[in-house]
Amino acid sequence: MSVIVHSKKVKRKALVASLIGSSIEYYDYLLYGTVASLVFNKLFFPNFSPAVGLLIALASFGIPYFFRPLGGIIFSHIGDKIGRKKSLVYTLGIMGVSTALIGLLPGYQSIGVWAPVLLVTLRLIQGIAVGGEWGGAVLLAVEYTEKEKRGFAGSIPMMGAAVGMILATATISLVSLLPDAAFLSWGWRIPFVGSLALVLIGLWIRNGLEETPDFQKAKDEGKVSKLPIADTLKYHWKEVLLITGAKAIETAPFYMFATFGVSYATNTLKMPESPVLNAVTIGTLVSLFMIPLIGKLSDRIGRKSIFIGGTLGVIIFSIPYFLLLSKKSVLLLTVAVMIGYGLWSIITSVMGTLFSEMFKAEIRYTGISVGYQLGAALFGGTAPLIATWLIAKFNGSWLPAAIYLMLLGVLSLICVVLLKTMSERENSASTKDQSYLADKIVKN
């Protein structure tokens, strides 16, 4: 059977498509969190006290994390059975429509209780869509690239969360320059409805690509799984659980250094909000430069060793991070966030490629999506809440939150050490076969 070879132009287009798609998905997804505390508590939950309305608005930001595994299952089934391209077009389209509809929703004063009900429903749909996006974006980049360059390729879509966060923050900062009444009435809606333009660009680029070579090869050879989720859980449940645990040290720090860090610095330490948000933006920019560089480095020294190094870094830095924050210095806060995001970048840059190397092409989308999204649900959306609860429980002490982050690091360290790539498993099986033959020859 002939090997599918694509030109450098097609491979570059695949990388661009993976980055643009994941960036748009996360822009839409994180846009909600940026607006929740400014608008939604007033327009959609006005019957509650301001504090309770804010809590409900923020809870509606976190709840969809538990729907992301469902999205991973639904769209990875499409991706492993019909094709990566089809699944990615669906996730981007669904995300775009649901985000635009949020921007068009009437408030509580117009349609009563239906306003918050529809808002939360659309938010859940966003969670399902982003749950299916990540795995497809990673495979679009990795499966179009030769094996010796897949570390760099797999790092490109991992930049999507950082790009999305910067776009969401910048867009809201821009429209918030409007007078308060205008911003609350219609200004906040512009980024939501306007995201449709970005989605159309992303769909145009993705639709112009052929199916990934790895999936096309599996399809040509008749190896497409009839029920990918069943095959994955039957034969690779250990890998899924290990990926779920390994994900903890990537997803928890992302929200601890951003969402929780902002909340802790502004509410507990009473630091001004603007420099705190600027520190997060600077940290995010640091990650944009580091992720592709570390991804490229992983093609030389290996994905697992880099992941372990980054995890050890987070464990070691957990206490110094909170110590720097406690000084209430904008400069030290910025340094802490920059270092934190730098360590997070080391881990996230290799995660997509490392996980994709755990599975054969016919169940790869399902395997990486289910494990990754379970980890995001268990350790991502819950991290800021658990850290906040721990600090309140121990009378304002940050040490329990730091220890919690360290324990997640130990969990991930154990899981990633136990992870074996397809090539490692094949080499292990080959060694056992050779040993068996050698013993048989000696006995004879």
UniProtKB/TrEMBL annotation:
The keyword Transmembrane applies. Pfam families: MFS_1, Sugar_tr. Keywords: Cell membrane, Membrane, Symport, Transmembrane, Transmembrane helix, Transport. It is found in: Cell membrane. The keyword Plastid does not apply. Belongs to the major facilitator superfamily. Metabolite:H+ Symporter (MHS) family (TC 2.A.1.6) family. Residues 14-424 form the Major facilitator superfamily (MFS) profile domain. May be a proton symporter involved in the uptake of osmolytes such as proline and glycine betaine. Coiled coil: none annotated. GO terms for molecular function: symporter activity. Gene3D superfamilies: MFS general substrate transporter like domains. It is a multi-pass membrane protein. PROSITE patterns: MFS, SUGAR_TRANSPORT_1, SUGAR_TRANSPORT_2. This is Putative proline/betaine transporter. The chain crosses the membrane at residues 14-32, 44-67, 88-108, 114-140, 152-174, 186-205, 240-264, 276-294, 306-324, 330-355, 367-392, 398-419. GO terms for cellular component: plasma membrane. Its main location: membrane.
